[in-house]
Design goal:
With 116 residues, this protein is an alpha+beta fold. Helix content is 35%, strand content 28%. The protein contains three helices and five strands, in the order βααββββα. A five-stranded mixed sheet has the order 1-5-4-3-2. The longest helix is centred in the last third of the chain and has 18 residues. The chain is globular. The N and C termini lie far apart (28 Å).
């Protein structure tokens, strides 16, 4: 089993909470359902959770609600803790490099502050 948590900036802001607050009730329910899969299943189907290639161990959570596709980028802190750190509505086939870079930057910030 895994545990899902949200990244917070040094000032306490939580980008994932802000993203979730922008969703409709139906969209939020689907995101919550997908996160529960990640927490509860030993092997999560790739359609919901997969490691992105050519990144600093960034994982992608995929949520589709009707015609809307959402992505939540995350990383592992140890074998079971999944830290969600960036989310967006997906408009193109590939994840924009700027979104991956932001996720990697937040990952570095998380571990740097954790060791202080």
């Amino acid at each position: 089993m895994r545990e899902v948590t949200f990244y917070r900036t040094k000032s306490g802001n939580c980008p994932i909470e802000q993203f979730l607050d922008s969703l409709t009730a139906r969209q939020s329910a689907k995101v919550t359902w997908t996160l529960s899969l990640i927490e509860d299943l030993d092997v999560v189907p790739k359609q919901y959770f997969k490691k992105l290639t050519d990144t600093d161990d960034i994982w992608e959570i995929r949520v589709k609600v009707g015609r809307n596709s959402f992505r939540i980028l995350s990383f592992f802190d140890g074998p079971r803790l999944v830290v969600l750190n960036h989310a967006f509505s997906k408009q193109t086939r590939k994840i924009p490099k700027s979104d991956i870079q932001l996720s990697e930057k937040r990952k570095r910030d998380y571990f740097r502050r954790k060791t202080q």
